[in-house]
Amino acid sequence: MLGAAALSACGRGAKRPNIVLIMADDMGFSDLGCYGGEIETPNLDALARNGLRFAQFYNTARCCPTRASLLTGLYPHQAGVGHMVNPRENSPGYRGDLARESVTIAEALKPAGYNTLMSGKWHVTPVTDSKHNWPLQRGFDRFYGTIHGAGSFYDPATLAEGNDYVEPDKPEFNYTDAISDRAAAFVREYAAKPEPFFLYVPYTAPHWPLHEPESGIAKYKGRYAQGWDALRMERHQNMIRMGLVDVRWPLTPRDPDAPAWPQAKDKEWQQRRMEVYAAQVDRMDQGIGRIVAALRESEAEENTLILFLADNGGCAEELRENPRQPRARHVPEKTRAGEPVQLGNDPQVMPGPENTYQSYGIPWANASNTPFRLYKHWVHEGGISSPLIAHWPARIKNPGTITNEPGHVIDLMATCVDAAGAKYPQEFAGTKITPLEGKSLIPVLAEGRREGHSEIYWEHEGNRAVRQGKWKLVSRHPGEWELYDLDADRTELDDLSAKEPAKVAELAANYDAWARKCGVEPWT
Hints:
Blueprint: H1 3-10, E1 18-24, H2 42-49, E2 52-58, H3 63-72, H4 105-109, E3 115-121, E4 142-146, E5 159-161, E6 164-165, H5 175-190, E7 197-202, H6 214-217, H7 227-242, H8 267-297, E8 304-310, E9 342-343, E10 356-357, H9 361-368, H10 381-384, E11 385-391, E12 401-403, E13 407-408, H11 411-420, E14 427-428, E15 431-432, H12 442-447, E16 456-460, E17 463-468, E18 471-475, E19 482-485, H13 501-518
Helix pairs in contact: 1-11, 5-8, 7-9
């Protein structure tokens, strides 16, 4: 129930903290300046400098499942979103709609007296005529954002205010800025109230499409002329110097589907892809700066817990037009001015403007996930490793440090409940609630360590993994199990499965038991 733990978190009689939970979309482990990247992120860097960075924090490898786990403190299948929001009949773990046997952080915190606010991407329910699982029906007092998972940054599909769809409100509309500015406005409004608030800010940046005005891209013009190979080495050395990566963990080889930079074609276009991506991350950081400034101006920063993470690793998806299939709902046919939108990664078309719809592709995603391998979708370290920055001046014991305590997105519900002095319910609205899987991170913030999970599990699209202490058993569907000692080899280059058959058998049996409990089904 977390009641006793919560008393220790907020202190007996102490004013309960505000909580601001911010998430980037499709951003790699090494993109931020404070995680070794060259992208200018001074506001997140400042939160890290005065807060705590986690070096071994995990997501679920994909957008919808991570959001479901974050909101509920359960594994994705327990929350009904074992894959995406495309329902499977007679498969509770894959219903593609947030389960009624779960509660959201907002639903858990409202009974404790919190105002609950959201600005950004929802993506835990299908886009249909029903609004039963929209944010206002899942515990939030206020909502501005999108219901669907991706879309134009100039004219996003399913943009909504409360329970109503709305249109962009000005010609120069930018969705990242709109999320930031609405979140900052919520802070200014609700910091003046006597009750604490919970604010959830899930950005769509830097998820494709590569959309950014020329004014934002200009800062990065020419920055990536050295290519992805040099960028990966540069970031790897930065991460070693910072203490985020052990010097014993070599940089993984370049993805076999990525050419060496000297052999790459269309270099101007390739550079432009990463320039736009970097500018999208930069714009998000600027917006986070405005949110923090609103807290500071409201004299609320000292007792506000800010958490920042990413929903999965960098995304290697390549976008292509298929004339035999209708476009997805999130891809517009035309711009607001009536120009045709060119869908697909065409080297003859420079990304950025509203009439383009591109992604940054395998080689740059490989760089985003430095030093790891694989990407969003997979449960090797490149797909599931997330930055986590925690900032809470009133409570963090050793600001400016890095912790190697492992954590998982299921822990964020427990952390918020703990910090808020709330209770995770056994029953809600007449429905029995699945017991909480996560554990609070507050002991790590306040004391530097906690009694963590004996094991952490993953499954997405048949990709499977379990971590037990230093051991990680992982499989890339439809392949066999691989075993890694993450203390010595977190970049997963030395498969020990043949040398440690007993450990493989033990962890595989534990995985199978977990999969049965959570409703994981074979991937087909």
